[in-house]
Input
Amino acid sequence: MSITRDSDWTKMFNRRAAILAGGKAALIATLIGRMYYLQVVQSDRYKTLAEDNRINIQLLPPPRGRILDRFGQPLALNKQQFRVLVIPEQAMKVSTTLDALAQLMDLGEHERERIKKEVGRKRSFVPITIKENLSWDEMARIQVNAPDLPGIVIDEGLTRYYPHGQLAAHLLGYVSSVDEADLTGDPLLQLPGFRIGKDGVEKVYDLQLRGKGGTSQVEVNAYGRAIRELERDEGEAGADVVLTIDERIQSFAGQRLGEDSASVVVMDVHTGDLLAMVSNPSFDSNAFSRGLTTDEWKGLVNNDHKPLLNKVVSATYSPGSTFKLVVTLAALEHNVISPEATCFCNGRDPKIPQFQCHKTHGHVNMVRAISTSCDIYFYEVARRLGPDKIAAMAKQLGLGQISGIGLPGEKVGLIPTEAWKKAARGERWTTGETMNTGIGQGYVSITPIQLATMVSRVANGALAVKPRLVRPGVVAAQNGTIQPEDGAGAAYESLNIPMEHISILKQGMFDVVNGPDGATTARTGGKLRTKDPNGNLWLLSGKTGTAQVRSLSDAERAMYKDKPELIPWKLRDNAFFVCFAPSDAPRYAIAVVVDHALGGGGAFAAPIARDIMEEVLRLDPSRKPRVEGDQIAAVTEQPT
Amino acid sequence: MSDFSFMSARLRRGDMTPMEKLWQMSWSLIFWLCCIFAFGFAMLISAANGNLDPWAGPQLVRFIVGLGMLSALAITDIRLVLRYAYVFYALVLILLVVVEVKGFVGGGAQRWVDLGFMNLQPSELMKPAIVVALARYFHGVNMDEIGQPTVLLFPIALVFVPAGLVTIQPDLGTALLIVMGSAVIFFMAGVRMWKFLAVGVAGLAAIPVAWNMLHEYQQNRVLTFIEPERDPLGAGYHILQSKIALGSGGLFGKGYMAGTQSHLNFLPERQTDFIFTMLAEEFGMVGGLLLIALYIILLIYGYAIAFRCRHQFGRLVAMGITTGFFLYFFINIAMVMGLVPVVGVPLPFISYGGTSLLTLMLSVGLLMNIHVHRDVHMGVRGGFNDF
Output
């Protein structure tokens, strides 16, 4: 190898080494540039991403507010429930643990299959629910055997509980899991197992009851395992809702109704407070909250007494003779007949003999027409008034209108007018329809709560009282300002009906119960006459109603003449009774509607109303709130 | 490097005593090596949340054993190294075939041989083996012969046989490293530039064919590299989490053992391939730059040794080892920063792993050997007087 060759070679080597070194320097510069871009230029973005990675925000569900009656008795509350969970990574072998657990509690093959699937799907540190709502016995057995059950954990949670079961189920409603359609953006709704109100007060006041969710910021690793809690915000517990309902009256009324398909509304005629609102038969809200079985559901749906329907607001009826209160006031307002003027009742209408009365009453004036519920008189009055004037008075008394208590599924009913018929049927109004309207049949259709409103407005001297289910002072208390409860009806506007008119009507209603030939006195042998706690007689004033569901054919009439109990249930008349007491200083109104009751309003509905009213009056002197909690303490009832 | 001209005659003949050779070793290079290892040792402790087990302790033992091997190799006569270059190459190649057959029989991608005290990956050892074998070949070829294409056939076979074996393991990353590391020897040996261009063009043309030969997971890695957000919970997850870790580290880092991405397991393989990410998360860009600076010092030593060496064999080996070492750390760091696709290349002297560390120590041992024997006159076959 020559010297020149050697130096050529060295030159080449040096040149190429320099090229390589340059290339390396360029690549290292690229690395540093990339590092600068990631760690300086984009650093903030990646810092946020790293925090997002690291911090897992968990929602803490707030305890749901209670629903209380007017004295603070809980109607809906949260009960501690126990559930048993398994943490697979702590169990030696999940199937062995489940075997051991099956000795202590009921554990179906189906459940085991589900647990096995979940174990396979989830990370081994995620607890898997084995069973919820453990009985106390099961819980105790598992606790005692805990050392032999590796990986088994008992967890406490809150579940909605209705201590009175079927009591007030319709107005309380129930809670259930969230549907797709319920999602509003409140992240709480996305929590697994979160329940929201699905009916009744639970639904209407859901936002207030729900509260605000807390958050817990947890540091997690890449597999989602919680390492430690960084920050905790407890959120806000749901607020209690205080109803106007008196649990004692509600439950008394429910028991009094027994098996019947019926509604009862007990209302304070001055404040509009609903002391009881019963739709019978009822269902168990607890069953809904835990989830119904198919059989339970079928039983409820197929029952012809319609236990799921809140009849107080959602069932509509022809009011029958209770509607005569409206016709009377309309007649006096428009002066179509003088209160002293009489009509002669021989059982048939003099002009249209197909229209009959249920009896022959002879000469009846206005008061006697009400107390005997003479149809002939009201046919005549209705003819003189026409449907529109009757409808106007009905509206004033709250019929055919939404009550305003806000429960879901409320029906408006119907008060027919000439214009309505024209629009709805395209036909002219007929006189026969006017006469039917006059006795609360035909197109007229109302709900029980409207009947209670109507009689309250008569009883309180024509103030436009509205029913209310929730005590207003308590709602206001949430904003920190506590309003004293409304005085005795002072806030309600007058309907501008002259007192003389009301007095005549009230006399008629007094005679229904207490008069010599009143509609209930005649049929019940005077048993409806009651005494108040001070021994004063003649407390109750009221009005009966019996409405045909379907007119029986002559053949049917003949068939059932002697054996009315053989009439199929669905064909029997509906029975109504509306009343108020005490007669001289009305305080409470009651409306009773019994579906398909034998004997009609006087014989069937009135005794129910009387018994409930006695209970209401018996409880009246003790009407002082049992103080419970600040919210209720702030709201004291005005003494009467 | 001080002047040892007074002993130049003996240096040229290479007949130094072992003690003299030890004295000749570049102890400052050892010092820098220890600095890099210390950095890695600290990171392995952090990766184990402050524990020596399971990574830092064993790695320290390997490093100390490795230092012994390095010194032993450094004072071995370079002529023996040259003489047995092919033998060593052949042994590693046999190991590679054994692994291949065993892996095939075992039905999996097994890349190591169990030596009892450690698992040896022959593909790692192949990297220095091939450098020495190629250097030996080109040591005996002069400038005129290099121009003849037939001369290149043998060294090309030397490269592509093991590269092919490693590719079907399948370990594409190592195969590419072998090819690229070898190309440097060809380049430094004086192979014409246009030949590299031709191979490059041919390589580009072969990409579609090669693509179809890739395993699906390898194709996914490349696709993920092109578009990391393609599948953030699947193949792109690692690189995305790595970038988040790096970026969130910022300029000065989150502090030693305080990297959230690393310690909460968002970062995959934090003790091996992604250890640079953890380092840069905890010490920030400053820490990353410090490590790169240490690596650059190592590169400079490698170049200096190559330039000071008087024989072609030493120069080629030094350049080959230095470049291989550069490729290691460049590809690893570029990978964790999302600049190149995810390939299984460890970070030299830092990543946990026995074979990798052993190979690197052997490579530095070779470098040191060349430094010690820089003035030895060597014949074509490494004989003492046959030039």
User: Anything to note?
Assistant: Residues 50 and 93 of chain B are 40 Å apart (CA to CA). DSSP finds 17 helices and two strands in chain B. Chain B has one domain: 5-372. Chain B touches chain A through 44 residues (CB under 8 Å).
